[in-house]
Amino acid sequence: MVLYQTPFQSYLLEVMDPITLTIITLFVLATGGATTAVVRRQKRARRLLRLRENLRARRPFGDQRLSIFDIFWDLGASDFALELLAHHQLLPEDDETEVFGAWSRLEDLIEQYGGYEGFLEDSLEAIQEFFEEHQRVGHRRRLPGLTGAARRVIPIPRRLESDSSPSTAEPASAPAPAPPSAAGIRERREARTGGRSLGLKPEMRHEEVDLDNLGKLKPLDILQSVLDGNIGDRIEQWWKMRRLRQLRDELDDALVALYQFYADTARRNPDFYAPLYDAHQRWRDEVSRLRFTSRRRPWSNTAFELAADVLFELAIDLAEHIAKRAYDTTYYTIENIHNRARNDDRAMAGYLVYLNRHAFFAGRHPGYADHARKVEYATQRVREEVIRLRNE
Predict the structure, then answer these.
(1) Is the pLDDT of residue 175 over 50?
(2) How many CB atoms lie within 10 A of CB 284?
(3) How far apart are CA 226 and CA 232, in angstroms?
(4) Distance (Å, rounded) from C-alpha 120 to C-alpha 70?
(5) How far is 245 from 239, CA to CA, in rounded Å?
(6) pLDDT digits (tens, 9 = 90+) for 311-365
(7) How far apart are CA 348 and CA 129, in angstroms?
(8) How far apart, in whole angstroms, are the C-alpha atoms of residue 99 and residue 80?
(9) How far apart, in whole angstroms, are the C-alpha atoms of residue 376 and residue 361?
(10) 266: closest CA among 278, 275, 253, 279?
(11) Per-residue DSSP letter, 212
(12) Taken in order 158, 164, 170, 176, is the CA torsion positive or negative?
């Protein structure tokens, strides 16, 4: 059989030697192989992106919203958690049908266990026999850290419309804190990345009084009183608050003494701040564990290989975020205390120390207890005086 050749093909065969033809052939094959690899990588990237969206997507289960990643995270983010999810067929690929199927099976499981908490508790008991390393970081949905504040406030019981007349009303005592409800516990658990969004707040059972403005009579207030013709009432009000100003000064002295105790203790102990960054370090260790497992990939060649890669990638991102938040919260609170002291506002610095007294001193420097009691006693006296003046 004789193949027909064009004049140009005949010319090429005549002028090109076999080596040149071999090089051209290899180049074409290599280029085609590279193009195929690029296409495969793009296809894999698209699948991973779809999986990432599907595994992070939340849907309502009862009175809470959950995603597959939430369950993986709550189970400890380990290869054991992957096996358990795969056992329950909760690890979908990028197909939308598989995602809805996983959600349907999860809903059935939650109903069988009487709620998500029951399913989670039973699953963790099964995992703990083999895996306990993830417990070192503590509660996986509660971000630890110090507490900051922009101003000094004390809670005063809110006065209601039905209260007795001012002449007969007695100072009300602060309401006892209500026990945490199931909904409140779930809300705290949902705040695993550091807290809920600062949106609308429920109505508080108390009102906050700014200590720095107690008993002050500003020049603009005096001018307004002159214009309104009630300067006498304003002066009488200022006079009645003289005891409140005295009690506030005593509270300031107690806060300054607490700050001084903090500063002296930190100065005498070079490792004073090290335990405060323990949460940050534990979450950094968790990041290292997740990275090591992700590189080892014990789930290779399994049906849920891509889903496992995505879940560990999401877990690493979240653990790094929590570690950074834990560090930043501690660092900026400590720096805020120091900045207040440098700006000669040691009462506010002492107030911040008081808010974080247990984190700073508990179990290490018991001498803080006396200073804390003095602050609490002085605060209570200010609170009682504010209530008395309000009733008048």
Answers:
(1) no
(2) 19
(3) 9
(4) 11
(5) 10
(6) 999 999 999 999 999 899 899 999 999 999 999 999 999 999 999 998 899 888 9
(7) 49
(8) 21
(9) 16
(10) 275
(11) G
(12) negative
